[in-house]
Amino acid sequence: MHVCAYAQAYPAKPIRIVVPYPPGGTTDVLARILGQRITEHMGQAVIIDNRGGGGGTIGTEAVARSAPDGYTLVLGTVATHGINSHVSKKIPYDPIADFAPIAALAQNIICVAANPSLPVHTIGELVDYAKQYPGRLSFASSGTGTPHHLAGEFLNQMAGITMVHVPYKGATPAVLDTITGQVQIGFLSLATALPHVKAGKLRLLAVVEGTRSSAMPDVPTVGETVKGFEISSWLGLFAPAGTPPAVIQKLNAEVVRTLNSPDTRTSLEAQGLNIVVNSPEQFAAQVKLDYERWGKLIKSIGVQLD
Known about the structure:
Radius of gyration: 19 Å
Oligomer: single chain
Number of domains: 2
CATH class of the largest domain: Alpha Beta
CATH topology of the largest domain: D-Maltodextrin-Binding Protein, domain 2
Order of helices and strands: HEHEHEHEEHEHEHEHEEHHEH
């Protein structure tokens, strides 16, 4: 009886969603759209708390150590819960044991974009150019060990080419240096790249997912040219482990209701995000599977931060 009463009373005070990255990126934009809708429906303020640093580790650890009462959540990514602990031995939390998955929110589509001065229009042409001029091409990512970085290294490995990785502190500087030609190629979130593609400042070559984006069905996948290439990058909501199941279910129902509303769907698809709707159990299974999958990929590429 106690649990039911707790769930009915929840939320009795503001909810904090920690975004473990600086403001302005895809994770932050998604958190703000979600927070606004939940505030309107649940009648409690949702506070967005940006705690960047450590490739998402600092903010994620803060939530792992928070009270498991449903009032402190983290908008986690495939980096915070799938990649980081494979590339660094110093991650101060367990991405599986320390969290209760609430719901997947969206696929963060990663694209391969070129500076327009580079004479390539497809992944095939990019691979040919890189083979013709070994070591000449460099690619930008939003940081070492991010899905964007690993997508670039994976392409190097699968296509037998050598593009030099240039890591940046976040998405914005990575995009800017690809636009100015400091680097020729960017592995960027589609949401971040899209406005610059539309303005003619970047040329879109492909997306790294296994299937084409529903928002941009004309853009091919890397895997259509380089067989077996596929990278999946998701965003999802987590509570600390030990949060009452009734609260997890209530939050999941709220997230699903929000994601299914047409105006939210339109806002997120305009950001280049593919919406994902699932249950806590489905999301937990996906997190575990991707954790293992990334482990194998990182081992094969040989990326280690410490």
